[in-house]
Amino acid sequence: MRASPSRPQVPRVVVAAVAFALSAGAVWGIAAAVDVRGAFQAAPGAAPTLITPRRPAFYWEEWNGFLAPRARTIDPPRDLAFALVGPPPAQQAEARVTVELVDGSLRPASIVVRPGTTVRFENRDELAHELYGVDYPAIGPEATSPNAARVVTLSDVRIIEIRDRRVPHLRGYIAVTPVAYAGNPAADGTMTITGVAAGSYTLKVLFDGRWVHEQPVEVVEGREATIPPIRIEPPPGAAPAPSTTASAPTPPAAPAPTPPAGGR
Amino acid sequence: MFLSRFWYLVLAVAAGAGVATAFLAHDRYNKARDAEVEGLLVRDQIIIGALLKLDARSRIDALAAVGADADVRRILSAASRRTEEAALRELNTQLTPRLTLLNGQLGGMRGDLVFATDARGKIVAQLGPHERSFGAGYGTFPLVERALSGFLRDDVWLFEGKLYRMAARPVIDNGVYVGAIVHGMEMNADLAGRLSEKLGGATVAFYTGPQMLATSAASTQSIPSPREVEIGGALPAILASPEMRNDGRTGIRALGDNGRILCSLVTGSAAELDAGWCIARARQQLASPWDLLRDAPRDSIVALPLPYLGGGVVLAFLFGMFFVWAERDRPWGRFRKAIDRLGRREVERLDITAFRGAYRRAAAGVNDAIDKTVERMGDAPAKRPVANLDDILGPVPGAQSSGGVTPFFQVPAAAPPGSPSGTPMGGFPSQSGGFAAPPPSSFASPSAPPAFSPPPGARASSSGPHAGLQETSLPPTPPMRPPSSLAATMPMRPGDAPPGMGGAPAVTLPGRGPAPPAPPPGGRSPTGPISMPSSLKSTVLGPAGTPPPPPAAAGSVMQGFPHVSVAQAAPLSDDGLDEGQTTVARVPEELLASMTGQNEALTVAAADEALHFRQVFEEFVAMRKTTGESTDGLTYDKFVVTLRKNRDAILSKVPAKSVRFQVHIKDGKAALKATPVKD
Predict the structure, then answer these.
(1) What is the ipTM of this complex?
(2) Cα→Cα distances B334→B1, B2, B330, B350, B417, Å
(3) Could you tell me if A154 and A162 are in contact, meaning their C-beta atoms sit under 8 angstroms apart?
(4) Nearest CA of chain A to the CA of B18: how many Å?
(5) What is the pLDDT of residue A256?
(6) Residue B99: is its pLDDT beyond 80?
(7) What percent of chain A has pLDDT over 70?
(8) What are the residues of chain A with a beta carbon less than 8 Å away from any beta carbon of chain B?
(9) Can you give the pTM of this predicted structure?
(10) Contact between B140 and A57 using a beta-carbon 8 Å cutoff
(11) How many Å apart are CA B349 and CA B353, to the nearest integer?
(12) Chain B 220-249, residues with CB within 8 Å of chain A CB atoms
């Protein structure tokens, strides 16, 4: 009779040691990521472009004659989006993004997502909305009742304009592009990207449906990266800023930036 | 019936022109009304735009009282600084009644949808349906956004399935924008009705997409205005039209067959939702030209030149009646009277010369029927009697103007009843094919012909006033050298006469009396070259030394020639020739023409006729001698002139080729009968 060969036994201690080492390395790597901070400044007259209607939007629009009018400006959490293009992070978050429909508008109205990201439109309004992508049949017109949501998955690399058939003035933009990190600024215009791995990146800013700013960002291990304030200029063709001095608007409650896919 | 038919043609042309004019007027009327409707629609478009603009201005101005209200300013100022729901609800409780009161004070400008927002665009108080909860806002709506920025503005909203014309203005408190007052009035059927009334009867409709929201059809128009269903049916095509997609408005379009429509998007943000208005007007079209008269205004009818129109109608009628009388009633009356006379046996036959056209054919038919009836009854001769020439021709044309040259041919105007000349005049003897009833006629010579006096200078062409023609057989013709050609010239001058013909022998042929050349002084007969076709020459002259056949064999050229007299070259006295004296006559032109050889067929026919005339003349003279009548003044030239006149008269009325005359005794006197020959 032949005796069967015996399987070599790995000591459990060795296995535990390897596992510890891997875990420690991962924790060290995360701990090695740094934050990237910056801010945006809106130039006079910088505001989202109004929709050009087929017919005049009004018969009368005139100043009240008593108090200087307030100029239109940028709402940073709603109108601006930024992205870091570079080495992907070691651990990516789930590719899901939520956009709210509030007070007849999208919040945020500009977002940057990776291809394959699922975007969830939640109607927090009391109006029904019917969003659709302009020249983008993948997002066809579909009614979304109040307190209901609509989910779409975006895979085409492009900038998609979103409109609403029931609220004509509503407009937003979704940039689908391979990025490492993306997000929206705070109400005060500040930007913070946390947990960025060291490496060379390119910072891109989305405003009014186009990339309005692009600059390289070098992230060094163990040192926070600070980006100088970025000035947002008026869109080309926009009306010049009114000469009257606008009083400081009462800022609305700044919503928390929606974390984009792969965001912080 | 020529005039009647011509008049019918004139009336038909006039009627056609009238109908064509009516259709043209009908078409022009409809086009003019279309142009008028289109012009009204363009005017309506301008007016409705101006009315909506003024309405927007009025609402903006009316809101000033609300925005300046102290309570409103205070509450909105407080709301702009608070975010707690309880505090906002308290402010809502305070503001709502105040807002209701102020809205009520607007009167006709009272809003169907009114709300007040804080500086962030959040609703603090709202009037009207679908009151919204706290926290919701309109701050991003362009109208509210601009109001919060300090501007007065208007807009059109599609809110909960209804169209609202909106207006907004800011609320300022202590030098700060603390909110806005937003005011909306529904674009409903009431507004459409008021606009329709101001537009003077146009149908006004509001729509969003293919859905009709409100319509007001004018009730003052006499014709049905376009209805909502008609406009709604046209909307999809209108919204899909390139002009609507690009410009937000359309031109004037057809609304079915009975309307015109013009559409435009509203001036406001709802235009992006395909919200707009339409103006439609009915086409006031006339279905037919008859409607021109049916719908004619009374003053237009009164303004018509009725006397002239009536006079024209009466005149046209009278013309028509006259032509009908002249060309139908009167001949028919004559025919009917003749039939009546025939029925009363006042006449035995109808005088067909008294009728024309169809009545003549009918009369001939009646006569033919009478003949046949008589023949069947054995009362009539087996052979149909020939008709008197006068029955056919009436008075001989030109007989009166001949100055009594041929009195024996002047037949009585009406033959006495029972006389041979007035009796049998049935149809023409069917001696020729296709000529079913050629009526032979007879010349009834007068019983006492007046003295005949020849016209001056006529002796050369005739045998003299008192001389009958001496019918002689052609003497043996001296040998004549026949020309080789058909138009050989035969010298006929006395000096050139061949031997054996006396000093100046000449051939006397039946000549045409009316046109003889002037005789030379002395009464010498005209002589000259006479052309004669060789065939005729051989026939007429015969071989040298061969006597011609007897005249009884007349009927052909060869038979007829022996009747040609040879005139003696003896000089003629001014008194004319004695009876039986050989005369020198002019060669008949027919024969001359026949001798030219231009048309052999014509030549043969002319020669045949000339010989026939000669034969008839000779027979007539002989008959008169037989009956003891005088032949004074009876010359061949005169005789043949009358024959030709009668021949021409018959041929002009009867489709025949020639006319044959026969000599017979009528009432103991010599008379002639004419028979048309078709072939």
Answers:
(1) 0.74
(2) 15, 18, 6, 11, 19
(3) no
(4) 52
(5) 36
(6) yes
(7) 75
(8) 50-51, 53-64, 66-72, 103-105, 125-126, 165-166, 168-170, 247, 249-250, 252-253
(9) 0.57
(10) no
(11) 12
(12) 245-249
